[in-house]
Amino acid sequence: MPALSASNPAEVMVIRQPVPRVITTLSVPFWRFGRVKVGGRGTIVRLRSGALAVFSPVALTDEVKRTVSEMGTVKYITALDIEHHIFLGPWHKEYPDAKIIGPEGLPEKRAKSDVEKVPFAVVFPSANKESVTVDSDFDSEFSYEFVSAHANKELVFCHRPTRTLIEADLLFNLPATEQFSRVPGADATSGILTRLMAAVNHTRGEAMGQRRFIWWAISSGDRTGFNKSIAKINGWDFDRIVPCHGDVIESGGKGIFQKVMRWHLEAYDKAK
What we know:
There is one protein chain. By secondary structure, the chain is an alpha/beta fold. It has 10 helices and 13 strands. The strands form 3 sheets. A 7-stranded mixed sheet has the order 1-2-5-6-7-8-9, with helices on one face. A 4-stranded mixed sheet has the order 10-11-12-13, with helices on one face. A hairpin with a 6-residue loop joins strand 10 and strand 11. 44% of the residues are buried.
């Protein structure tokens, strides 16, 4: 089976701070199906209290541990969907007091797999999802929505103080330039499958490929529910988007989100 993640994460990970002392990104190479360069990214947010919220954790290297210790204390570890969870075990082992957060279906999926057991403190359900909260410290800085209508069961967060949207598979911004920048001899755009993936999942121009893919594929199971979630997210005040796949959108993210999700926003408004 082809490798999905780099075997040497410490040598190829890019650690940087889009918002100094507040947001740190951990960008790594990742090959979808072992062949398609989509990249992966974990995000660490330092709350005003000094607590750290980790989203879509990636490999816990020694440098990552040093970065964490310099930032604060890990209090929350979140799997952003039912696919972005493979490093929950190592992070829970290192930071056993942190609350583990995930979407409906993930605890059951992990229970059926040969992976480490982790105790989920907060699980977002499809039914009555609006009633779920994390705690006062977390909720004082984050808005969140469980996009249960997404094929991967997406949790999306907005860090209000920095106007930063953090998401996994809701929106891609390929190519994964930063995530492959430290891989010797690698080109984030090389390979026919990678080029085909990037042709659909980019945000340039009208982003018609991604717009069509989300409309006809990702949201097709429950488009009404998906539209409602997209409308809620659109109501948040954000400028930066930190996706798991592709480059960080440093500014202008709200307009890009509205462009990619235009049909869903229009459908929601029409149905009101």
